[in-house]
Write a structure and sequence with these properties.
This protein is an alpha+beta fold and 171 residues long. The protein is 37% helix and 18% strand.
């Protein structure tokens, strides 16, 4: 349990750090060019950045996409006359990074319906090398819902830190 929590913490912190790098990059581009970069442009800038490889590539893409969506939302509010709307901020409190949600798309997880487990991929920087247990986080799960609820045809898994613990959301 504690090893799984530690691994999920590492992924959550990595997502926050990538968000911050992407936020800083977007700010620089915005200051120099006058436009806010979109998801594709930000991904192109950051694909070779060290923080990008902390997460599975699809998870890193999702962090950057969420930042681009946050900028679009802010820009839309400003365009509607809401002068109090602020651009997305950094995910950091002093020297602490919060645990951000990590989204795993289909290539970033393997679902074992027989044993109620899901294997979440780590990014290259967080792997210990080779194709061993250290390359992924193996999470057992309990379905919360009516007894007849089944988990199948999973398209996406989100590791969400809420109320002091990690929870998996299946889509």
């Amino acid at each position: 349990q504690s090893a799984v929590r530690d691994d999920l913490d590492s992924l959550g912190f990595a997502a926050s750090k990538l968000w911050n790098v992407a936020r800083w990059t977007a700010g620089r581009i915005w200051n120099e060019t006058g436009h806010i970069p979109g998801h594709s442009e930000l991904s192109a800038y950051l694909k070779s950045h060290e923080r990008y490889a902390d997460l599975h590539s699809q998870s890193s893409q999702r962090v950057i996409q969420e930042l681009a969506e946050a900028f679009n939302s802010w820009y839309g509010h400003r365009g509607d006359g809401n002068q109090k709307a602020n651009p997305p901020g950094y995910r950091k409190h002093g020297d602490q990074h919060p645990r951000s949600t990590v989204t795993f798309k289909q290539k970033g997880f393997k679902h074992d319906t027989q044993y109620g487990r899901v294997r979440l991929s780590k990014g290259a920087n967080l792997k210990d090398g080779g194709r061993y247990a250290h390359d992924y986080v193996l999470c057992e799960y309990e379905v919360i819902g009516p007894p007849e609820t089944t988990v199948e045809n999973v398209q996406q898994v989100r590791a969400v830190y809420e109320h002091g613990e990690w929870r998996l959301h299946f889509v």
